[in-house]
């Protein structure tokens, strides 16, 4: 460290510790908000992946049937593959615990093969540890399990809740009550992610029996033997592959659509973006202020003959120091913030997928590194911009008598902002790429965001206009600075505009979404009672009603009509999707599906039935139609256990329930092709005069394994799930908003610091502290108002892009735009309220800057 | 009766007394120059006299009222009505024009609009800046800025005007002009003046000169 940098950087920081601390805290805050949202994201995704992967790790290829189950009888054809790889047949099901109604993933694995025959997969599974002793112990567990058809292995997390070996787990599989016996614990190994809590492992034959699916599998996982090559295994497998079976890479797991919904991911990544934008703004603000405050020093050095490059080095050195320290501080702060947001995320994941998600966020090394990198780099860039400006400005100007920070060119910024805004809208609406991609919508949104935040700065002089003519001196002093705003004003307003804009945009989109979905539910849920096996809430559920139970319910004396609905995962054109089947006759007569194309309800449904099982029709959900580019009238090749069949699309169905999309067949056709009479859910239309609640109560007694909900209760539940999905959005947005408001307070504090002399002379002229605080507060609120107004405007534009372009393009969801006035008013109130709360202490502090001893001691 | 009186005033920074047991009195309309080497405590004394700082011993009386006992609110009122201040570095409010800077104290006092206009116009004319009335401080020269500051300090007709090296930042001719203006206007308005300065010439406009050294007056106050 040079003599100069020691004196000019380190000493200055120590002497002006107030300024240094402010910068440090801002950097910390910026890094913290970035890190916390990233950590929360990671926790959500991790807990989700853990849930998705379950125990089945380490496989290289996955074999499954295109549609319907995989038959064990099809496996011998693949025997030659065993020279190069090992295989692991898997069947999956669901178990609902009786006392808590919690859902569990039930995994049937060939424990004999795992425990004894093939050592490698056993290691992958987990019960066997690398050292021999524990493998023996694990093997013992296996034999305990395979001798008892009710035996299950449970996770350590569940065991920790007091379920020792030998205890009984009571609950339901499909609709039947069952008693499982805990035979052992699946040990966690440090090399693998923890085994999810809600996982039960059974021996394959026992699981098949329990699920009443003897001879059937959901998939077969293949792994390489040492020395073998994946390409060879794959090539040979493709040669041997029986018709109707497909090979997939392991990550393309389609089972029951249990991938985290893209919508949810989208949500999280947008939030990361807010974090990034707000964090970056804060850093820029901090360093802009920090450099500007020392303009005199820099100018003096220039005048004394320091070359600009040397100055730049000094400034950047200081930035690196502050950035590094602040980022470290931010790591701690971000970790703290993350705990709160992770809780929100885990609630959502729990609610949506029944997965037990992480309840706390670990300080992930990689994320910490990125946060540090982000913090330090952003600090350097943030310092470099004003430093270069200072280095380029002639020293005389910097030393000018009234040398406050220079005003920003609001007119130019406003023009640039307006152009960015228009460009963004033009980009988002003007280009139509292939379905599923939406770079133009993302790009447009970013441009709108950038433009909107620039416009927030340009709005400042407009808000300052009353200060030009007013005769009230406080108003004059408060608003005049807005007429020629400095970069401090600008950054604070822009950061707030981004935060408000994101909140508004997402909020309006969610509300439009909610309104659309509730309307859709209102129309499509017409039956009186909805029946499903207990525990079948999430998409992960594999519970089904047996044909007999469905018949019994449909034949009940109080029931006028029943619509049996079944849903299966299939692979269509190489991509996972769903095939559903419903009773179109009942649906056409009594239902109320909303159709996006194919004619008004119920004409397409009737058209569907005309071809019988020979030339049947099919309904495609809107999401399916978008994903696969399918139109009404198109003929599709549908994979079935009986071979490929041709179906004609008769209508496009509005469907917001499933973003993978689905095809819906008429039930008789499905029965003929799939030989699967089970039912995922059953809609019952009661005879006139029957009380839904009374019938439901009676049926519940008769069928303890069933969940029977009235129309109202189901609607309520759907609405609740919807709210939970987006709860996290609001929680994380609140962080962004909070940070932006804190940034505003920081900006005001800095402004007061920069205007120390002014505050001092105002006091000498007789302004009281209350006067000064009021002036500073008013000025801050003016900045907040500019941020708010621009934010609301850009937020609405953003919402339109999300609703009009992004949702249809990416998810295939057509939403009706809805302007939620109440929500906007709430955003405005919360923003201004939070701003006032944060600004009052800052203003009071600023008013004291010129204070004399009279104040400290009171009088 | 003296408008401003210091009785045994002292001020200490840490353990070091910068000013010790000072007595002085200022009669209405009287102009006193405070002369002394740099660091002898002139600014410190002026801050005590203006109530911007509190003495560690003794007291300051403004028109008989002890400043150290006044509440912050009362002090603000006194500053608006009875005290005027001029700084070495002008300290004009950069977001107000010259004219608006001058009328600021009057607006603080809620003067009626017509009275403000009249007083302000008169002041601007007397400091010779009628043609620069709507200029921003950044557009004014040092001498012009200080003339605005003088007008602003006198706007509310204070009983005492405290000026800390008002010409320290000006060239000799604008310095002379400002000093002449100070003498003329305080005379005209009947304000007393405490003028801190390094220059004997500046002291020439005053009725009395107090010389300070090491926090003490050299000759006892006359
Ligand atoms: N806030 C302070 N903390 C510590 N010491 C101070 C403080 N303010 C002033 N001093 C010291 O008090 C002494 C008198 O300072 P003062 O500013 O009154 O001098 P001055 O006579 O006005 O000098 P100049 O003519 O250079 O303006 C100086 O030695 C100064 O170092
Ligand atoms: Mg001095």
Can you give a write-up of this model?
The complex is a heterodimer of chains A (859) and B (222). With 859 residues, chain A is an alpha+beta fold. In chain A, helix 2 runs antiparallel to helix 12 and helix 2 runs antiparallel to helix 25 (711-754). The longest helix of chain A is centred in the middle third of the chain and has 46 residues, at 308-353. With 222 residues, chain B is of the alpha/beta class. Chain B has a single domain (4-217), classed as 3-Layer(aba) Sandwich (Rossmann fold). Chain B contains seven helices and ten strands. Chain B has helices at 42-49, 72-81, 98-108, 113-126, 142-154, 172-189, 200-203; strands spanning 4-13, 16-26, 31-35, 57-62, 65-66, 83-86, 160-164, 192-197, 208-213, 216-217. In chain B, helix 3 (98-108) crosses helix 4, helix 3 (98-108) packs parallel to helix 5 and helix 5 packs parallel to helix 6 (172-189). The model of chain B has no long low-confidence stretch (mean pLDDT 89). Chain A binds chain B through residues 400-402, 404, 471-473, 476-477, 480-481, 483-484, 757-758, 760-769, 771, 852-855, 857, 859, and chain B through 47, 50-54, 68-81, 83, 85, 87, 89-96, 100, 104-105, 107-108, 113, 137-138, 142, 145, 152. The structure holds adenosine-5'-triphosphate and magnesium ion (MG). Residues 13, 18, 36, 38-44 of chain B line the site of adenosine-5'-triphosphate.
SSE layout and pairing:
The complex is a heterodimer of chains A (859) and B (222).
Chain A: H1 3-15, H2 17-53, E1 61-65, E2 70-71, E3 85-97, E4 103-109, H3 111-117, H4 119-125, H5 132-147, E5 151-155, H6 156-159, E6 168-173, E7 176-186, E8 199-203, H7 204-210, E9 216-217, E10 219-224, H8 230-240, E11 245-248, H9 262-293, H10 295-303, H11 308-353, H12 365-392, H13 395-398, H14 410-430, H15 439-464, H16 466-469, H17 473-483, H18 487-524, E12 529-533, H19 547-554, E13 559-572, E14 575-582, H20 584-590, E15 595-597, H21 603-610, E16 617-621, H22 622-628, E17 635-640, E18 643-653, E19 662-666, H23 667-674, E20 681-686, H24 692-702, E21 706-710, H25 711-754, H26 756-764, H27 769-811, H28 821-847, H29 853-857
Parallel strand pairs in A: 4-8, 5-7, 14-19, 16-18
Antiparallel strand pairs in A: 1-10, 1-11, 2-9, 3-4, 3-6, 3-10, 5-8, 6-7, 12-20, 12-21, 13-14, 13-20, 15-18, 16-19, 17-18
Helix pairs in contact in A: 1-2, 1-11, 2-9, 2-11, 2-12, 2-25, 3-4, 3-5, 9-12, 9-18, 9-25, 11-12, 11-25, 14-15, 14-27, 15-17, 15-18, 15-27, 17-27, 18-25, 18-27, 18-28, 20-21, 25-27, 25-28, 27-28
Chain B: E1 4-13, E2 16-26, E3 31-35, H1 42-49, E4 57-62, E5 65-66, H2 72-81, E6 83-86, H3 98-108, H4 113-126, H5 142-154, E7 160-164, H6 172-189, E8 192-197, H7 200-203, E9 208-213, E10 216-217
Pfam family, one (chain A): FtsX
InterPro entries (chain A): ABC3_permease_C (IPR003838), MacB_PCD (IPR025857), Membrane_comp_ABC_pdt (IPR038766)
Organism (chain A): Candidatus Geothrix skivensis
């Amino acid at each position: 460290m040079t003599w100069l940098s020691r004196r000019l950087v380190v000493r200055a920081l120590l002497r002006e510790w107030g300024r240094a601390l402010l910068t440090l805290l801002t950097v910390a805050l910026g890094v913290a908000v970035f890190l916390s949202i990233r950590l929360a994201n990671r926790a959500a995704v991790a807990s989700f992946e853990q849930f998705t992967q379950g125990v089945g790790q380490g496989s290289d290829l996955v074999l499954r049937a295109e549609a319907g189950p995989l038959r064990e009888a099809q496996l011998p054809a693949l025997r030659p593959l065993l020279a190069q790889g090992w295989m692991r047949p898997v069947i999956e099901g669901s178990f609902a615990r009786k006392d808590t109604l919690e859902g569990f993933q039930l995994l049937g694995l060939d424990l004999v093969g795992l425990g004894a025959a093939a050592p490698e997969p056993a290691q992958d599974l987990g019960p066997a540890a690398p050292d021999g002793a524990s493998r023996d112990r694990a093997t013992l567990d296996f034999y305990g399990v395979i001798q008892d058809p009710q035996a299950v292995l449970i996770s350590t997390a569940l065991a920790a809740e007091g379920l020792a070996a030998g205890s009984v787990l009571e609950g339901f599989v499909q609709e039947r009550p069952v008693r499982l016996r805990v035979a052992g614990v699946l040990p966690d190994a440090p090399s693998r992610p923890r085994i999810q809590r809600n996982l039960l492992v059974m021996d394959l034959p026992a699981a098949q029996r329990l699920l009443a699916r003897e001879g059937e599998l959901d998939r077969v996982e293949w792994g390489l033997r040492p020395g073998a090559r994946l390409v060879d295994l794959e090539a040979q497998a493709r040669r041997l592959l029986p018709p109707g079976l497909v090979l997939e890479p392991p990550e393309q797991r389609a089972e029951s659509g249990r991938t985290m919904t893209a919508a949810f991911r989208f949500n999280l990544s947008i939030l990361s973006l807010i974090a990034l934008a707000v964090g970056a703004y804060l850093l820029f603000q901090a360093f802009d202020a920090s450099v500007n405050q020392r303009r005199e020093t820099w100018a003096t050095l220039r005048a004394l003959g320091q070359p600009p490059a040397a100055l730049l080095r000094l400034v950047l050195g200081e930035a690196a120091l502050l950035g590094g320290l602040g980022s470290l501080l931010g790591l701690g702060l971000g970790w703290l913030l993350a705990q709160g947001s992770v809780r929100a995320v885990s609630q959502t994941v729990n609610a949506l997928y029944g997965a037990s998600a992480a309840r706390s966020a670990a300080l992930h090394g990689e994320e910490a590194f990125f946060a540090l990198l982000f913090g330090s780099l952003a600090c350097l860039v943030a310092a470099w911009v004003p430093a270069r400006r200072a280095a380029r400005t002639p020293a005389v100007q910097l030393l000018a008598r009234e040398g406050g920070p220079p005003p920003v060119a609001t007119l130019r910024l406003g023009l640039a902002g307006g152009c960015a805004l228009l460009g963004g809208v033009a980009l988002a609406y003007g280009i139509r790429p292939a379905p599923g991609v939406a770079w133009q919508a993302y790009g447009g949104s970013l441009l709108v965001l950038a433009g909107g935040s620039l416009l927030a700065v340009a709005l400042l002089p407009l808000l300052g206009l009353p200060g030009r003519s007013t005769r009230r001196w406080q108003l004059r002093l408060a608003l005049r600075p807005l007429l020629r705003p400095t970069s401090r004003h600008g950054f604070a307003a822009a950061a707030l505009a981004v935060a408000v804009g994101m909140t508004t945009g997402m909020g309006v989109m969610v509300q439009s979404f909610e309104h659309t979905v509730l309307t859709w539910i209102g129309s499509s849920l017409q039956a009186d009672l909805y029946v499903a096996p207990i525990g079948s809430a999430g998409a992960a559920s594999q519970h089904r009603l047996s044909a007999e139970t469905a018949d019994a319910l449909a034949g009940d004396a109080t029931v006028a009509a029943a619509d049996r609905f079944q849903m299966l995962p299939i692979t269509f054109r190489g991509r996972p999707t769903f095939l559903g089947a419903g009773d179109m006759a009942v649906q056409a007569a009594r239902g109320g599906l909303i159709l996006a194309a194919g004619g008004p309800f119920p004409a397409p449904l009737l058209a569907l039935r005309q071809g019988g099982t020979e030339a049947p029709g099919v309904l495609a959900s809107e999401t399916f139609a978008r994903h696969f580019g399918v139109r009404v009238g198109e003929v599709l090749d549908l994979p079935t256990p009986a071979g490929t069949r041709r179906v004609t699309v008769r209508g496009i169905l509005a469907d917001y329930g499933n973003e993978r999309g689905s095809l819906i067949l008429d039930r008789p056709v499905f029965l003929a092709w799939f030989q699967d009479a089970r039912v995922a859910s059953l809609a019952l239309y009661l005879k006139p005069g029957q009380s839904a609640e009374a019938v439901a109560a009676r049926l519940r007694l008769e069928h303890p394994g069933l969940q029977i909900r009235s129309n109202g209760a189901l609607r309520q539940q759907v609405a609740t799930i919807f709210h939970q999905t987006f709860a996290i959005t609001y929680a994380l947005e609140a962080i962004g908003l909070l940070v932006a408001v804190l940034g505003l307070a920081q900006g005001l504090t800095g402004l007061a610091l920069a205007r120390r002399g002014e505050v001092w002379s105002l006091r000498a002229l007789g302004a009281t502290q209350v006067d000064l605080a009021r002036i500073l507060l008013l000025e801050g609120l003016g900045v907040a108002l500019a941020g708010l107004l621009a934010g609301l405007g850009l937020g609405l534009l953003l919402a339109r892009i999300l609703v009009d372009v992004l949702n249809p393009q990416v998810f295939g969801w057509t939403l009706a735009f809805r302007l939620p006035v109440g929500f906007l008013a709430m955003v405005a109130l919360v923003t201004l309220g939070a701003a006032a709360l944060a600004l009052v202490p800052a203003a009071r502090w600023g008013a004291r800057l010129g204070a004399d001893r009279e104040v400290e001691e009171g009088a | 009766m003296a408008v401003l009186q210091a009785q045994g005033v002292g001020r200490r920074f840490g353990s070091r007394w910068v000013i010790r047991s000072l007595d002085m009195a200022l009669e209405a309309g009287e102009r006193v120059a405070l002369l002394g080497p740099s660091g002898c405590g002139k600014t410190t004394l002026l801050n005590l006299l203006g109530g911007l700082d509190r003495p560690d011993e003794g007291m300051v009386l403004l028109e008989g009222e002890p400043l150290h006992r006044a509440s912050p609110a009362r002090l603000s009122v006194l500053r608006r009505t009875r005290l005027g201040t001029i700084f070495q570095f002008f300290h004009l409010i950069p977001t107000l024009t010259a004219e608006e800077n001058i009328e600021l104290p009057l607006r603080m006092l809620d003067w009626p609009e017509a009275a403000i206009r009249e007083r302000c116009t008169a002041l601007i004319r007397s400091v010779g800046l009628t043609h620069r009335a709507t200029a921003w401080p950044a557009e004014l020269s040092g001498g012009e800025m200080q003339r605005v500051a003088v007008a602003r300090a006198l706007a509310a007709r204070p009983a005492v005007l405290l000026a800390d090296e008002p010409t320290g930042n000006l060239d000799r001719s604008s310095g002379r002009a400002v000093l002449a203006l100070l003498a003329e206007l305080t005379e005209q308005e009947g304000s007393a003046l405490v003028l801190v300065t390094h220059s004997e010439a500046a002291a020439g406009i005053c009725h009395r000169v107090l010389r300070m050294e090491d926090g003490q007056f050299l000759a006892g106050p006359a």
